[in-house]
Amino acid sequence: MSELRGVGIGLGVAHGPVARMAEPLPAPEDIASTRTPEEETARVSEAVAAVARELEARGAQAGGAARDVLEAQAMMAEDPTLAQEVSGRVTAGKTGEYAVFAAFASFRDTLSAMGGYLGERAADLDDIAQRVIARLRGLPAPGVPDPGHPFVLVATDLAPADTALLDLDKVLALVTSEGGPTSHTAILAREKLIVAVVGVAEAAGLADGETVIVDAAQGAVTTAPTAEQLEQATRRADERKASASAPLTPGALADGTAVPLLANLGKPGGAAEAVALGAEGVGLFRTEFLFLSSNQAPTVAEQRTAYTELLQAFPGKKVVVRALDAGADKPLAFLNDAHEENPALGLRGLRALRASEDILREQLTALAEADAAAEADLWVMAPMVSNVEETAYFVSLAREYGIKTAGVMVEVPSSALMADRVLAIADFASIGTNDLTQYTMAADRLLGSVASFQDPWHPAVLKLVKATADGGAAHGKPVGICGEAAADPLLAVVLVGLGATSLSMAPTALADVRATLLAHSLDDARRIAEAALAADDAASARAAAQAAAR
Ligand code: PEP
Ligand code: MG
Predict the structure, then answer these.
(1) What global pTM score does this model have?
(2) Which residues line ligand 1 (CB under 6 A)?
(3) CATH of domain 261-549
(4) Is a pLDDT exceeding 80 seen at residue 117?
(5) How far is the CA of 384 from the centre of ligand 2 (A)?
(6) What CATH number should be reported for the domain whose range is 37-137?
(7) In whole angstroms, how far apart are CA 425 and each of 367, 384, 390, 406, 472?
(8) Ligand 1 mutation pick, 265, 292, 409, 502, max ligand atoms within 8 A of CB
(9) Given pLDDT bands bounded at 50, 70 and 90, which one contains residue 412?
């Protein structure tokens, strides 16, 4: 038995025989073409167009997020700059196969060097190149294997075209040797609730047919498992199934203490799924989606329509909308145009809105109008608030527009440390653990090389959560959590033990968190939180909490 480590996506566990993704086609040789450049160009254009159309067709068949991803990939295939790179090589006498291979490889290297989100798109380019070369050679496109029985799919990294059409009855779990938590494998595994562990460096050593346990909660792949381990994995998988189909009760601890479970949403269209999964309201509505695709702010009318649609999906329920959070990982041309060495430490979030106050005023106008047209309980908060003065600025501006409940996101350590003053003014706080961890640990949340520092279990982060919750409690004001940390069931218990009054997360995470909260009383949660706070680092905090929870 041995354990290979990676990054788990979600909390599922599954086991079964490995089936490896077909190895990529051998690289074409750099030999002179026997065709004219015109003939080669025509062959390549036909193959690229055919691949793009096939990707679109797969997208249309898959629907949902997969369609967007595959359409983007089809556009990437037909990117004019890439076409130019290919044509330059063909004109120089290369074969179409080699020209495609070399041009895509050079683009891939550029993307990889950028790291983060763009780096993780590198696999997309490889996949497109393989498909085009296969077509030029008259071979079938490389893809998901079909061993004729359910299997654990092992691959270097899955391309969107593969994940989109995975037959969920056959694929027990996914293991990739590359790719991080924002790779397509991870995004689609989350959306389709497929058990997945990504970035398992040693996955290349797994052989077809060998039985493995894929444990996303532990971020581990166990090879040659014992009968007892297999039994335990089956039991855990069954328990998860039971919790997923458990009744959609409001979030609560074992002693009945209410912990409202809310949804993080990025588009009003996500409301129906959130309600179906038992969300008791919205804890974070990210308004960036309205702004990201255009080069100017949407009009008040456009915003009002979107906010009204959202609020009408939650009659009588709390809906927390965040004012536009632009900058750093969410840059917006019309708000963040100046070059900054360190955009995460720059004019971002509320600072950027304040510098373009008309945009903030328009957003508040649209929100107040939507509020008047719906029955939801609208709360509005500002992103990236770092001091008391900014809190007072935002709350008083929101009141000018008749917003009844105005609060701040606590994502910067300074706000957490000043929470007793901040919450004397704000009606509520919501802790964004993604950014709070980034700033506490000085670790860029988009940078793979410092990903190990980006762990919200770190006791330094937990202490800041406690300071914020204490600040809220001193004034009887609610302090919720809306970062990814709330979606980790045991960490959710810890956060409640530290004083968080509600938890907001991706709707697919609600069932696991609901079930885990129900297993612990408030006294338990406080004791488990104490154990985590007393640790030296993130890994020991997690281990201490696990031991205390047993
Ligand atoms: C956070 O920082 O934790 C958060 C919820 O905001 P975002 O992830 O949108 O920056
Ligand atoms: Mg944030």
Answers:
(1) 0.72
(2) 284, 286, 325, 411, 432-435, 482-483
(3) 3.20.20.60
(4) no
(5) 7
(6) 1.10.274.10
(7) 21, 16, 10, 9, 10
(8) 409
(9) very high
